[in-house]
Amino acid sequence: MFAVELVLRITGASYYFLQTHSFSQNRKSRIRILCLGESTTFGWMVRRGVDYPSQLNKLLESKYPGRFIVYNRGRPGTTSAKILFSMDRFMEGIKPDIIILLCGANEYNPRLSVIPLGRLSSFWGNLFIAFSGYLQDLKIYKMSVALIDHLRYEARWGCAIRPKKGLCPEFDEGMRALLRERYLENLAAIADKGRVKGAAVVYSTYLWPWVNYQDIKDAAQKNGVVLTDQVEMLKRSGAPISKVMSEDGFHPNVLGYEFMAWSLLRTLEEMPAFLRYTQDR
């Protein structure tokens, strides 16, 4: 079992590294933009280089040659809790000047989200998140869950942690309320960690309004964070959602990722700090 897990991890890590890491020269002299999120940041459903961070990097390079480098640290299936847990490592390793955060799609996915068990102390809460994240990141665990789902198996106690419509309805609303509260807290904490290290923070909505749209907008206003309202910008462009959505009904297609990069570039150029970033170095 250990050998299987090791092979799966090496294969997955190699693919993730090649998919998300840039090999540009002279990184230290460039303004660093860190893109955090899940599969919509990683670039699911499209080939390498079509993800929005890669396209944003190309747009910036064409307008401001040699000034920027964009890091894609999107991870499919991740949540705000896991991003927050990794923030110190990101900040230390990359030292970003700007952080772009797009997350929320997996917060209510019972297979992926860390379930808040009451008001745990900081130590025990962090330990629980770390253990849960470790377990859920095991490739064998993920394959086992997929097999169980395929066989349509439901353990009795699973109703409590994997609420589905029509099953254990008493947990549905309460659990979603707890997860939403934790999500909003995580958004604020991620922004705080970035700003403490001197980074400007941008929240982005998804292209479609049915994925935590209002929560992201409200959090940006409450936390004093710059917002890229992809929904409103897409509406103003006149393009129908069907033109920018992939066949899975959620992830952007090539045009969708291109539009995301363009809208984020517009946001960056409207930031008061942007001119300072381009002149300081």
Protein architecture, described:
The chain is of the alpha/beta class and 281 residues long. The chain has one domain: SGNH hydrolase (Rossmann fold, 3-Layer(aba) Sandwich), CATH 3.40.50. It has twelve helices and five strands. The protein has helices at 2-20, 39-42, 52-63, 80-94, 122-137, 139-150, 158-161, 169-196, 213-223, 230-237, 254-270, 272-280, and strands at residues 31-37, 68-74, 98-102, 200-204, 226-228. A five-stranded parallel beta sheet has the order 2-1-3-4-5, with helices on both faces. The radius of gyration is 19 Å and the shape is globular. Residues 12-20, 22-26, 116-120 and 149-171 have low confidence and may be disordered.
List the helices and strands and how they pair.
Blueprint (H helix, E strand, L loop, with lengths): L1 H19 L10 E7 L1 H4 L9 H12 L4 E7 L5 H15 L3 E5 L19 H16 L1 H12 L7 H4 L7 H28 L3 E5 L8 H11 L2 E3 L1 H8 L16 H17 L1 H9 L1
Parallel strand pairs: 1-2, 1-3, 3-4, 4-5
* Biggest beta-sheet profile: 5 strands, parallel
Order of helices and strands: HEHHEHEHHHHEHEHHH
Task: Report low-confidence residues grouped into runs of 5 or more.
Answer: 12-20, 22-26, 116-120, 149-171
CATH topology: Rossmann fold
Assign the CATH class. Answer: Alpha Beta
Shape: globular
Order of strands side by side in the largest beta sheet?
2-1-3-4-5
* Percent strand: 5-15%
Mean pLDDT: 79
Rounded radius of gyration (Å): 19 Å
Number of domains: 1
**What is the number of beta strands?**
5
Which structural class do the helices and strands define?
alpha/beta
